[in-house]
């Protein structure tokens, strides 16, 4: 996508006469090379590029060919290590990567406008949520059913605005979302005596966010949802968003705790204001602001999710091996119920996240290393534990028949199993040197729509199939 | 001609401030001006100019603004500030003392080049 504002448009996007194509490529490469130095910021590279271009055009005016002029200009720029050390001495703070969220220089107003859009959308989501809250007093189930429909479209709106998503794509997605909202609200789900949701309704409520989130991926990709790279970007975005959201929530919780504590000392009850006004506006606000932060930091700050996978992969292996032993020793698993299946699903999802996020940050050209072996062990252990649990569950289901919950848990388990088993197969090929890493990466992103399809089936088809029980 | 690194470093600040005292300029133009002034004999490592400019900016001797070049590229312009002018005047006095002292030394060692080569 080309940035219309031209703030961060690289040299490649400028139109230059065709004969300078090689020169442009070389300058691009040089930029990339310089940009890797932490002490040299993007603005410094701009400045030095301007210098380089000035030098090159003077030299070519003096009769040198593009290529010769480029070489001379780069040579005169000096040894990059020394220059970078000099920059580091001047800007030691830069060795800590810094995030500039809003521009300090006047005239570069793109970021401010973006923040304004984000805040406006957050307020919009807050108002919708507030209206929903007011309209559903005494009927919390309606609120739970529709909360996600009130918030996520605003997040989608941010990406529609940011990525210039076409009207056609937006309209299709809006139609699908509306259809889902109608299904969830109009299906005659049965509920329990205390207004608690029935099985199929509960499943519909828990699976709609998944569908909507993956639809958001289409908007996030700017409509190019078929692209494997864009899908991986969405995976990265999701991981970082979860972490940022958790941090923002922690900070918000601290502020609220301090406020409540102080106000209670002077005898003011903060609770009603908190529940009626603060929460409906803060929850979508936190989501949108976190999304904006993740968007802004994208290239500047290292992703944290892959770092966490490094820490938790070995620990998860230990946990899985212990589980496997315990399940085998304490078997046969005749008394287990669907809780075991749900736990297994959760474990497989965890393993999948660990796999996905370390893949998302791996250099595809690096040779297989110890961590790739660890991951293989991780997936293998997860599959072994799941196999034990699954055999136990299948015998149980054969005995007592299917319910919506069991089918949903089993279905998800199978979907995850296929994903992980094939990933393990590909990873085996990779560590043995028979496959490239690209194949593993492509499989991860190619499989993502399966989750959307499965979640849609659970939302749309399970009600009618299981008589809305 | 190769000029010793320390000498380049010591003279760089007054040179840059002096050039900027003539009027606002940008990196490449400053460097070209240095070349002109020294008749091409003072060769700087181009990249080193920028950390220096940023240091002067931090010391508030110069003020930087982003503008655009005639072909529409982003370009950072530097202008000298009042405290930059003060610093320049001070450096000028220091250099005058140094250069006076050096002048007398050069006069004392009359057949200069032969001795200098012997020591080099």
Automatic annotation (TrEMBL), chain B:
Domain Transcription regulator PadR N-terminal: 16-90
Any Pfam family: PadR
Name assigned to this protein: PadR family transcriptional regulator
Organism: Promicromonospora kroppenstedtii
């Amino acid at each position: 996508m080309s940035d219309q504002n031209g703030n961060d448009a690289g040299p490649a996007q400028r139109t230059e006469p065709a004969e300078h194509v090689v020169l442009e490529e070389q300058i691009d490469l040089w930029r990339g090379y310089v940009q890797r130095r932490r002490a040299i910021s993007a603005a410094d590279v701009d400045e030095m590029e301007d210098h380089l271009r000035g030098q090159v055009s003077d030299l070519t005016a003096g009769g040198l060919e593009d290529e010769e002029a480029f070489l001379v200009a780069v040579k005169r720029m000096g040894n990059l290590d020394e220059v970078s050390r000099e920059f580091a001495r001047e800007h030691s703070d830069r060795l800590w990567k810094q995030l500039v969220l809003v521009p300090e220089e006047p005239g570069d107003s793109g970021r401010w406008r973006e923040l304004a859009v984000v805040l406006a959308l957050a307020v919009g989501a807050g108002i919708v949520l507030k209206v929903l809250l007011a309209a559903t007093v005494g009927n919390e189930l309606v609120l739970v059913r529709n909360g996600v429909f009130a918030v996520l479209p605003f997040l989608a709106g941010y990406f529609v605005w940011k990525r210039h998503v076409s009207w056609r794509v937006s309209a299709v997605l809006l139609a699908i979302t509306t259809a889902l909202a109608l299904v969830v609200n109009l299906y005659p789900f049965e509920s329990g005596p205390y207004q608690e949701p029935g099985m199929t309704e509960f499943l519909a409520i828990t699976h709609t966010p998944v569908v909507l989130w993956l639809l958001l991926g289409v908007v996030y990709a700017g409509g190019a949802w078929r692209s494997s790279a864009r899908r991986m970007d969405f995976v990265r975005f999701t991981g970082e968003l979860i972490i940022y959201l958790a941090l923002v929530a922690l900070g918000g919780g601290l502020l609220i705790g301090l406020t409540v504590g102080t106000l209670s000392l002077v005898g003011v009850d903060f609770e009603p204001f908190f529940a009626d006004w603060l929460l409906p506006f803060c929850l979508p606000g936190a989501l949108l602001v976190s999304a904006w932060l993740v968007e802004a930091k994208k290239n500047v700050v290292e992703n944290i999710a892959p770092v966490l996978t490094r820490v938790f992969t070995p620990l998860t292996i230990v946990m899985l091996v212990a589980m496997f032993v315990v399940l085998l020793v304490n078997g046969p698993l005749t008394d287990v119920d669907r809780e075991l299946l749900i736990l297994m699903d959760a474990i497989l999802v965890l393993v999948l996240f660990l796999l996905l996020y370390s893949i998302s940050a791996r250099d595809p050209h690096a040779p297989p290393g110890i961590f790739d072996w660890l991951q293989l062990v991780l997936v293998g252990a997860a599959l072994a534990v799941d196999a034990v649990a699954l055999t136990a569950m299948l015998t149980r289901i054969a005995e007592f028949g299917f319910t919506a919950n069991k089918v949903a848990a089993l279905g998800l388990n199978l979907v995850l199993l296929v994903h992980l088993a094939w990933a393990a197969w590909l990873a085996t090929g990779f560590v043995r040197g028979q496959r490239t890493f690209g194949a593993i990466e492509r499989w991860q992103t190619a499989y993502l729509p399966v989750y959307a399809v499965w979640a849609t089936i659970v939302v749309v088809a399970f009600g009618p199939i299981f008589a809305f029980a | 001609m190769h000029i010793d690194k320390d000498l380049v470093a010591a003279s760089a600040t007054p040179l840059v401030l002096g050039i900027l005292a003539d009027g606002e300029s940008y990196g490449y133009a400053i460097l070209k001006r240095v070349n002109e002034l020294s008749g091409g004999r003072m060769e700087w490592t181009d990249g080193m100019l920028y950390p220096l400019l940023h240091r002067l900016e931090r010391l508030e001797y110069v003020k930087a603004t982003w503008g655009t070049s005639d072909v529409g590229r982003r370009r950072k312009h530097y202008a000298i500030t009042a405290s930059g002018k003060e610093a320049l005047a001070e450096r000028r006095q220091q250099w005058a003392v140094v250069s006076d002292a050096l002048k007398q030394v050069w006069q004392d060692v009359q057949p200069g080049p032969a001795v200098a080569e012997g020591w080099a």
